[in-house]
Amino acid sequence: MNEQDQDVPLPGAAGEGQVFEITRIYLKDVSFESPLTPQLFTGQVSESPEFNVQLNAQSQAAGDDLYEVVLSVTASAQLGSQTAWLVEIKQAGVFKIAGFERAELAQMLGSFCPNTLYPFAREAVADLINKGGLPSFYLAPISFDALYQQHVEKLRRESAAPEDAG
After folding, report:
1. What is the arithmetic mean of pLDDT over 30-46?
2. Which of 19, 79, 116, 131 falls 20 to 30 Å from 32 in CA-CA distance?
3. Where are the domains of the chain?
4. The Cα angle at residue 97 between residues 116 and 117, in degrees rounded to 5
5. In Å, how far are 67, 138, 139 from 53, measured between CA atoms?
6. Tens of pLDDT along 102-116?
């Protein structure tokens, strides 16, 4: 067996036998809508759009030490009460993760894997909007590490909060 055939330990991983491997990255679902065309192209719309971006990451077991992580991104532009455009992407990946404690595994699935998928989702969103003939739109970089820590802290506070007696 040569080096290329072996599982590669995660850089900086402390434990023996810890494995992180990207098995596959793929676009699971995609949708693009631009209901205000051709008005957007003919100067019939004069107000500036309000942009909205929503993110969600979910994971599930996909086999022995395999996990599917799906990063959902919904980006839209609103002109008053009307939707100018809407993009929905589900960027997914299958990851082989082994040898990590439960808390480490949760952090890998909730932070490290979405961080890995996000650049692919950003590119897909920008490409769809560009192909729709609309002005360039780029999603800002996101720290999934910080989002994960906020999520863990929220769960910690909720579990520590005394239950209502009423």
Report:
1. 89
2. 116
3. 18-159
4. 15
5. 26, 11, 8
6. 999 999 999 999 999
pTM above 0.85, yes or no: no
Distance of CA 39 to CAs 28, 99, 112, Å?
31, 55, 41
Q: Which two tokens stand for residue 13?
A: 């991983």
Q: pLDDT by residue (tens digit) across 45-89?
A: 778 889 999 999 999 999 999 999 999 999 999 998 999 999 999
18-159 falls under which CATH superfamily?
Answer: SecB-like (3.10.420.10)
Upstream peptide bond of 38 is cis (omega within 30 degrees of 0)? yes
Burial 26-51 (b: 16+ CB within 10 A, else e): eeeeeebebebeeebeeeebeeebee
Residues forming a β-bridge with 32: 87
Contact 88, 55 (CB under 8 A): no
SS3 42: coil
Q: What share of the chain is helix, strand, coil (3-state, %, to 5)?
A: 30, 35, 35
- The residue among 96, 97, 95, 99 whose CA lies nearest residue 14 is 99
Q: How far apart are CA 57 and CA 160, in angstroms?
A: 25
Residue 77: Cβ-neighbour burial (10 angstroms; 0-12, 13-18, 19+) = buried
